[in-house]
Amino acid sequence: MTTTVTPGRTGPADSGEQVGKGDARRRMPRIPDRIRHGALPYLLLLPAVLLELLIHLIPMVIGIVMSFRQLTQFYIRNWGEAPWTAFDNYRIAVDFSAPIGEDLLNSFLVTCAFTVLAVGLSWLFGVAAAIMMQENFRGRGLLRAVFLTPYALPVYAAVITWAFMFQRDNGMINHVLHDQLGLTDQPSFWLIGDNAFFAVVVVAVWKSWPFAFLIVMAGLQNIPRELYEAAAIDGAGVWQQIRKITLPSLRPVNQVLVLVLFLWTFNDFNTPYVLFGRAAPEAADLISVHIYQSSFVTWNFGQGSAMSVLLLLFLLVVTAVYLLLTSRTPRGASRTRKSADA
Asked: CB–CB of 306/93 below 8 Å?
């Protein structure tokens, strides 16, 4: 019987090497598990933080610096040489007796009215549709998909389609209202004049209410069905159940939903720009398009940056006040929680 020995490899040497490696591994400093697990979330958030810095925070700081300069088309090539004007751009923007300040105030009021109507109607349609979709009936899945279609469509394609529908001579809106139903004496101009305000509200509501529908429908899944059954046994009708059970239970969802809809609608630039182009009618002069015109049409980037900073401050104040008011627990709810804990 012969024993085959592999040249250059011996048992004791291999075991010695393994023992040496094991000792080296034992001598290597090990990161404590607490530090390692504590740093992991920050490492995962690091790419998002870097993108946030590059996309939002750094341009925002640059815009704030630009608002203190007289940055016009003469300093585009080297905007660092633009004269420093301190708060002059802000004084001009808030001087409501002057043409620039008066136009900005009119645009701000139009945007407020537009936001109130668009957010209110979007929330109302979304809640009504979500409550209706809670009942089981044939075709419910298909109807849900149809309701979510405006939210799934690209914004530009949808708004361009609405622009064609609002055409005076060959648009579908005038064809239905004037030619078929006879509700108007003559075809209306929807993209110019006072009707432009209603046109942009209709498009904004059509585009936003499916989001409200989706969020409210998800919130309704957390309401126990036993509450409705008990209320029905006690003789509560549909409206009483909605008012006493559904809306109070949806309060946390509605708080976030209304805030998100407000921020999206007040800052909406795509809808009015695609619908009207660069020159929006006075009745639909939303502040986002107004700031764009002040910056890229008149080439006064310093003035446009000052308006943007004022808009940012307004939205921050409104958001802080809204969160402060809605974060307070109602007295009835606090008493209910105390009694439940007792």
From this structure: yes
Report the C-alpha gap between 308 and 59 in whole angstroms. Answer: 12
Q: Which of 68, 64, 69 is closest to 82 using CA atoms?
A: 69
Q: Which residues of the chain have a pLDDT value below 50?
A: 1-13, 15-16, 19, 21, 24, 28-29, 332-342
**Which residue bears the tokens 């085959």?**
4
Residue 167 contacts residue 189 (beta carbons within 8 Å) = no
Q: What whole-number distance in Å separates Cα of residue 80 and Cα of residue 29?
A: 50
The CA distance from 303 to 93, in Å, is: 7
In this structure, which amino acid lies at residue 121?
L
Report all structural domains of the chain as residue ranges with CATH numbers, in order of start.
113-285 (1.10.3720.10)
Q: What is the pTM of this model?
A: 0.79
Q: pLDDT of 23-52, one tens digit each?
A: 545 554 455 555 556 777 888 888 888 888
Q: At what angle do helices 251-266 and 195-220 cross, to 10 degrees?
A: 150
